[in-house]
Amino acid sequence: MTIGLIDVDSKIPNLALMKISSFYKLQGEKVEFVQPNTEYEKIFASAIFTRSKYKCEELIQKYGDKIEIGGTGWDINKVLPGKIEYSKPDYDLYSAEEIASRMRGIMTKERKLQKATEIVNAGMGFTSRGCIRECGFCFVPKKEGKFHNVAEIKDIINPRSNIIILHDNNITADPNCIDKLVEIKERGLIVDINQGCDIRLMNDDIAQAMGQVKHLRSLHYTWDLMAFEDKVIEGIKTLSKFIKPYRHMCFTLVGYNTTFEEDMYRFRKLRELKVDPFVMIYNQKKDIRLKHFARWVNSRIYKSCTWEEYEPWKKAQLEYLQVNMI
Question: Name one GO molecular function term (predicted).
């Protein structure tokens, strides 16, 4: 029997598909990404983003009962069976070339391939699931429930590399956070805390432990709502004692329940703290101004011109004003 897999929209290797692949290969089955003109007994697809629902609907029309789709982008209630969930990921499933082809941004082909090779060789997984928060814009509490531990750091190491990609949704809420960071340091691992950390829970002990491990990239966190301002600022200042602000990145949610003035305020406040913001538009909201704002911020164009001087937005303002008047 041949099992087909479809990764609908992941930018990095899809952990669920890697576990499905590992499980069926151990059963003696052939597993591969779906190829044209090939027959499959069963197909598994995974979608991360809700914007991909239409792609999933097209897959159902094409494959019918043969396909099973999971992932937050399709069904937040669908989970892997325990026997698959606790399988070791198949680190041979993705090639570096496949991941490099999904990368965006201004990079040479060589740099993309280098980064992709790091990613496919890295260990990947969760040591905890769920979250202590219940933010209205987030799927995690509905999908994963209350915070609970599911594995240890040693369980997600890939022997090929000393890099681990940690998918935990809220590591600073973990009672074992410092112990895990100490283990990462003692094992000589380099960590990518992929889902960020809850900066409102930052204290000197956690920040010091964070500062003693090697990070694959910037340490990131979020400032989603204006009501969080005092705690966010306090957490950033605490973290900055141990990790310089230029190594931080703050994801900033816009288009949810903040005004543009509040979005600009958060951007300026973060820059005052020497932290790089990264704008995320809620549900890909179709707002011309927010799209230009996100590009101005995320591409670091603000370092060369002010928002008022940003030419693409200056040209788009007339259309924006007309749309809003209608």
Answer: iron-sulfur cluster binding
Which tokens sit at 196? 């960020």
C-alpha distances out from residue 262 to 252, 258, 270, 300, Å = 11, 6, 12, 19
How many residues can be counted in the chain?
326
**How many domains is the chain partitioned into structurally?**
3
Half-sphere exposure of 283 (CA within 13 A, CB side): 9
Q: Please tell me what DSSP assigns to residue 41.
A: S
Low-confidence stretches of the chain (pLDDT beneath 70): 320-326
258-277 pLDDT per residue, tens: 999 999 999 999 999 999 99
Q: Give the separation between CA 166 and CA 276, rounded to whole angstroms.
A: 22
Q: What share of the chain is helix, strand, coil (3-state, %, to 5)?
A: 45, 15, 35
pLDDT per position as a tens digit, 98-146: 999 998 877 899 999 999 999 999 999 999 998 888 887 887 878 888 8
Asked if residue 240 and residue 209 are part of one domain, the reply reads no
Residue 112: inside a domain:
no
Backbone angles phi and psi of 177, in degrees to 5: -55, -50
